[in-house]
Amino acid sequence: MLKFLAPKNTDNWIDIVLIVFIRLVITGFTLMFGYLLAFGATMGPPIAPHVWNGNLDWGIRISIIIIGFSICIGVLIWSLLPLFRYIFRK
Predict the structure, then answer these.
(1) DSSP for 42-70?
(2) What H or E segment, with its residue span, contains residue 1?
(3) Whether 56 contacts 47, CB under 8 Å
(4) Percent of residues in the chain assigned helix, strand, coil, to nearest 5
(5) Does 7 map to a domain?
């Protein structure tokens, strides 16, 4: 799907700037989504207070926080490592 982001030997500086910009935009939106997942998991009343005396709520919130922060870490690795390799290759 994102094969145009792969570096090629024939890329000029305009292609490099465009690829860097697209990767930064994708990274920004995905980081916002991961942060909102992690932040949103801590808001509001218990999700199911009558199930397991409210203990179900703890597992759901912790798992959503872990998923949100995992998305943030994953997208940083996805964006920064290839980006640095691509920029410093030239």
Answers:
(1) TSSS-S-TTSGGGHHHHHHHHHHHHHHHH
(2) none
(3) yes
(4) 75, 0, 25
(5) no
Name residue, tokens 């203990």: 55
Residue 84 lies in a domain: yes
pTM (predicted TM-score)? 0.71
Residues 23-41: tens digit of each pLDDT: 889 999 999 999 999 898 8
Indicate the length of the chain as a whole number. Answer: 90
φ, ψ for residue 4 (rounded to 5)?
-70, -15
Place of tokens 């700037």: 17
The amino acid at residue 73 is I
E strand or H helix that includes residue 10: none
- In this predicted model, what pLDDT tens digit does every residue of 46-66 receive, in sequence order? 777 777 776 778 888 899 999
Q: In total, how many domains does the chain have?
A: 1
Contact 86, 19 (CB under 8 A): yes
Domain with 27, as residue range(s), is: 13-89
85 residue type, one letter: R
